[in-house]
UniProtKB/TrEMBL annotation:
GO terms for biological process, alphabetical: 'de novo' IMP biosynthetic process; adenine biosynthetic process
Protein name (database record): Phosphoribosylformylglycinamidine cyclo-ligase
Biological source species: Propioniferax innocua
Record's keyword terms, sorted: ATP-binding, Cytoplasm, Ligase, Nucleotide-binding, Purine biosynthesis
Enzyme class of the recorded protein, top EC level: ligase
Family: Belongs to the AIR synthase family.
Length: 357
């Protein structure tokens, strides 16, 4: 039906509901408002978000940093369970912790949600999770876009992505040039799978083994679905505090590609890192995927984080203080390896030993 108050009814007939989008914005406003930093100007719903850059005047030489990412096929678990209020925390974890590894403070985030059919309550749930993640990271949810794509996505399908911007003093950027032989590698526990490797996990447990998401798994102490939806741990605030407290030389966010591959990304030439698996015990979900799928150790370690979500490289003398600071905010951390000098052809990471049983 068409009338003067609904000029877009033809668009709605094509599968795009403008009114639903407006309702979604109204539902998410309170969540977004909770993330507001003092530098944010204006409100939600404009064409662009505003962040007062005069706040950067306190920096001697501010360097802006940016990162963009998504959640991957973990969204399929959220959709299958019809639980959408945690997937946004996964998005923020993937975004801000890529910034913090260089020492940057995340300032704001913008998000993008594409869906087959815009259900306002569902979108509000997703954004509530994004906003909660922003609160945990100390950044603002500055704006975003929700796009309805009928015919491209199924009615109950969606995907989420985003981008974040941060700032760091130029002379405070941490990274490979600061790493020295004799540094130790401090591992920080993950909350579980985080948001990587879900194509493998879904194939192994859901497709090949035929397990249902509501299956109670004694090793996990909860259902499979609850385990797979465990939100990504967000390390940003804890890592920034750590950088202020001790001499951190470099950090690595352990995401797709696993521990060794991500750690190697921050290593300079002519150094080598040895990681001792016996220093920690991965959560049961990791051995479960490996055993059910009959996956080799190299394959599983090149796909999943194996219980380590972030690592810091720092002088050995700072390790105890670092562990204590992280423990104060509920993050278990331990010395898992060390940096040694080596020829260029020996650069990289070696894992030795076996995980504690």
């Amino acid at each position: 039906m068409t009338d003067a108050n609904h000029p877009t009814s033809a668009y709605a007939a094509a599968g795009v509901d403008i009114e639903a989008g407006e309702r979604a914005v109204a539902l998410m406003k309170e969540s977004v408002a909770r993330t507001r930093r003092p530098e944010v100007l204006g409100g939600l719903g404009g064409f662009a978000g505003f962040f007062d850059a005069s706040a950067l005047a306190k920096y001697r030489h501010p360097v802006l940093t940016t990162s963009t990412d998504g959640v991957g096929t973990k969204v399929a678990i959220a959709q299958a369970m019809d639980k959408h209020d945690t997937i946004g925390r996964d998005l923020i974890g993937m975004l801000v912790d890529d910034l913090v590894v260089c020492g940057a403070e995340p300032l704001f985030v913008t998000d993008y949600i594409a869906c087959g059919r815009l259900v306002p309550e569902r979108i509000a749930d997703i954004v509530r999770g994004i906003a909660e993640g922003c609160e945990l990271a100390g950044c603002s949810l500055l704006g975003g876009e929700t796009a309805e794509h009928p015919g491209l996505l199924g009615a109950d399908e969606y995907d989420v992505a985003g981008a974040t911007t941060g700032v760091v003093e130029k002379d405070a950027i941490i990274g490979s040039e600061r790493i020295r032989p004799g540094d130790v590698v401090l591992g920080m526990a993950s909350s579980g799978l985080h948001s990587n490797g879900y194509s493998l996990v879904r194939k192994v447990l859901l497709s090949d083994a035929g397990w249902s998401l509501d299956r109670d798994v004694p090793e996990l102490g909860r259902t499979l679905g609850e385990e797979l939806l465990e939100p990504t741990r967000i390390y940003a605030k804890a890592c920034l505090d750590l950088i202020d407290a001790v001499e951190v030389h470099a950090m690595s966010h352990i995401t797709g590609g696993g521990l060794a591959n991500n750690l190697a990304r921050v290593l300079p030439e002519n150094v080598h890192v040895t990681i001792d698996r016996s220093t920690w015990r991965p959560a049961p979900i990791f051995s479960l995927v490996q055993q059910v799928g009959g996956i080799s150790v190299p394959d599983i370690e090149a796909t999943l984080n194996m219980g380590v979500g972030m690592v810091a490289l720092l002088p050995a003398g700072d390790a105890d203080v670092a562990r204590a600071r992280l423990a104060d905010v509920g993050i278990d951390a331990w010395i898992m390896g060390e940096v040694s000098s080596g020829p260029a052809d020996n650069a990289g990471v070696t894992l030795v030993g076996e995980h504690r049983g």
